[in-house]
Specification:
The protein is built from 8 helices and 7 strands. It is α/β, with parallel strands linked by helices.
Amino acid sequence: MRKAGPDSFPAADLLPVQRKATPAFRLLRLLVEPLLRLVFRYRVEGRANIPRDRPYVIIANHLNWLDPFMLLTVFPTEPRVHFLANPENLVKHRFHWALVKAVAGYVPVNLRQPGPELFKHVNRCLQAGGAVAIFPEAAYGPREGELQDSWKSGFAHFAVDNGVPVLPVALSGTKDLWLGKAIPVVIGEPIETEGRTVDEMVALGRERLAAILPVYNEPPGRKMLRRWLTRLLY
């Protein structure tokens, strides 16, 4: 495996994609999920909306480092969830890079030189029965309770091309973190792609995600370890 560097990022097809969860992921989930529940008080709504018999594309708002870990612990072990992410960020955080490679699917997205291999690799993942998770905002949102105006359309291309549903997931409370903070996660109903264009799916995905995004109110009281937890994996 070639080393990722600032001028040589991993190719999109560097890592395998599959439906089956890796042993490392199963083990880490047994360890991490109880730990997250000790540190944060998170509750999940809409688990029944998760497709059980077919692949799908997850779209979620993005606020902080905790977001992908929340998705990994909230969603079933299989199908294995694969993330699309900018490898330039992971070059700066090698622990995060090693962790993502070991426990969950990962598809590097070279924003400087995007190529057709990215689409081929994601298509291969969905056709193999895996799930793909995407943050269409492509960057941390500046505030809780709202979506950024700029959205990437890749998730809609992947879903339409493969005839799989898009599953909106709203995350709340992860922008600033502290010990014992409540983290609501709301899973919306699947958005079917049949008969819909890419542009329609982009608009509908944003509309459905905005509709389930919880209103955020800053809770009162002490906020222990706020600075440390908020910037833990920066």
